[in-house]
């Protein structure tokens, strides 16, 4: 069978005595071919019902028992049919029609065995047994199908009951949700009214604040216009002051140029004085060296005189040595006097250089705006002087201290003047106005 299985069932009914089954049971002597054709025809005493269903489990095609429309008089699978016949005879039937067929088959086989009928009757009996087995198989399949249908009906009933319960629960939930929806709508309506009221109050407050803000903006605008006018006037005054300061700057720059030229001349003079000082220092060192040599020579002469006196030499020789010693002593005293005068002159020159440098530095610091650069140059000059071994370290330290004090004083004065000017500009700007005569 392809997609569906056809089933036939014969119900219980009256058996016609003229039926082929009865004739075979009573030993009707017809050939096997006629018997097979009569067996293929449906017994008139049985009610026949036919139906078709879609097969869920198709039987395997290798099973020879499930082959459709097998003829009773077929000689194929004779041995298997004999075995099936013996098994069917040994197993008691389970249905009335099967029991009747079993009794008829048993009676017929006993009659044939007793009378020793022909081989055609044996073949008819085997085909009849095969039909009985097919019917049994179909009945079992029907039982299984009925059981499946019963299970399906049970599951369908359970689903129907569950669906009814779910429907009742859902209806209750729908009622509850409808009640919640009504309550939500009422609350939303109340909230909407509250929001509308609050919005109206907010609009009134915003409008009032807007009016106040407009008034404040108008007042600030007037104030800003007055400030702008004042600032324009202040700008003109500041431009005039800027012109004055620019002219003062040019004047100070000219003074700075003059001061720088004076500083360059002072540096040249200082360098020349340094050279003179080095020369005098070299002469002083030479004279000191000469004094030391003369002192050594005098000591030698004195030792020689003492040795001569001890050796009791001639008096003329002693007088010569004494005269030589006196001359050397006078020369030594003269050299010492010159060294003392040179040292005093050196100190005077150093004091003169320091005094002149301090005076020039103070004049430059007080008379120009470029005092920081001049102070730096003086600092560099003082550093150059400190590198020179001929200058005294204490004098250089004093010069540096004086310059530092002067710079601090100038810085404090500038800060004080700037603070006074700022206070006057902020509080009393009319004091700085230039009145026309």
Automatic annotation (TrEMBL):
Keywords: Coiled coil, Endosome, Membrane, Transport
Membrane-topology descriptor: Peripheral membrane protein
Ranges annotated as biased composition (Basic and acidic residues): 25-40, 299-317
Location, primary (coarse class): other
A GO cellular component annotation in the UniProt record: endocytic vesicle
SUPFAM superfamilies referenced in this protein's UniProt entry, alphabetically: Eferin C-derminal domain-like
Domain FIP-RBD: from-to ranges: 373-435
Matching Pfam families: Rab11-FIP3, RBD-FIP
InterPro entries: FIP-RBD_C_sf, Rab-bd_FIP-RBD, Rab11-FIP3/4_dom, Rab11-interacting_regulator
Protein name: Rab11 family-interacting protein 4 isoform X5
Name of the coding gene: LOC117651138
């Amino acid at each position: 069978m392809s997609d569906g299985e056809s089933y036939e069932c014969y119900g219980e009914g009256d058996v016609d005595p003229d039926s082929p089954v009865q004739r075979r049971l009573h030993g009707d002597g017809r050939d096997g071919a006629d018997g097979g054709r009569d067996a293929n025809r449906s017994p008139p005493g049985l009610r026949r019902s036919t139906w078709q269903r879609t097969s869920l489990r198709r039987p395997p095609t290798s099973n020879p028992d499930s082959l459709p429309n097998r003829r009773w008089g077929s000689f194929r699978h004779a041995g298997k049919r004999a075995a099936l016949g013996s098994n069917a005879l040994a197993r008691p039937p389970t249905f009335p029609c099967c029991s009747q067929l079993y009794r008829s088959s048993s009676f017929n086989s006993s009659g044939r065995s007793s009378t020793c009928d022909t081989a055609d009757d044996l073949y008819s009996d085997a085909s009849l047994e095969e039909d009985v087995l097919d019917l049994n198989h179909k009945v079992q399949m029907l039982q299984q199908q009925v059981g499946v249908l019963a299970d399906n009906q049970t599951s369908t009933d359970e689903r129907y009951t569950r669906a009814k319960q779910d429907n009742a629960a859902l209806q209750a939930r729908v009622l509850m949700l409808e009640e919640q929806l009504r309550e939500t709508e009422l609350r939303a309506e109340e909230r909407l009214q509250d929001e509308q009221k609050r919005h109206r109050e907010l609009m009134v407050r915003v409008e009032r604040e807007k009016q106040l803000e407009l008034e404040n903006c108008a007042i600030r605008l007037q104030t800003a216009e007055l400030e702008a006018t004042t600032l324009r006037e202040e700008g003109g005054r500041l431009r005039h002051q800027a012109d004055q300061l620019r002219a003062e700057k040019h004047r100070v720059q000219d003074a700075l140029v003059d001061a720088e030229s004076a500083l360059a001349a002072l540096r040249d003079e200082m360098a020349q004085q340094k050279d003179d000082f080095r020369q005098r220092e070299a002469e002083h060192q030479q004279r000191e060296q000469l004094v030391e040599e003369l002192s050594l020579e005098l000591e030698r002469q004195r030792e020689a005189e003492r040795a001569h006196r001890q050796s009791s030499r001639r008096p003329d020789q002693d007088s010569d040595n004494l005269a030589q010693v006196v001359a050397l002593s006078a020369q030594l005293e003269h050299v010492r006097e010159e060294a003392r005068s040179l040292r005093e002159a050196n100190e005077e020159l150093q004091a003169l250089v320091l005094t002149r440098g301090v005076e020039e530095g103070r004049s430059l610091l007080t008379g120009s705006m470029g005092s920081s650069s001049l102070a730096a140059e003086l600092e560099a000059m003082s550093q150059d002087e400190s590198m020179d071994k001929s200058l005294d370290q204490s004098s250089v330290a004093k010069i540096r201290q004086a310059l530092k004090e002067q710079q601090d004083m100038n810085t404090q004065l500038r800060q004080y003047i700037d603070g006074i000017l700022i206070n006057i500009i902020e509080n009393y700007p009319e004091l700085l106005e230039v009145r026309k005569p």
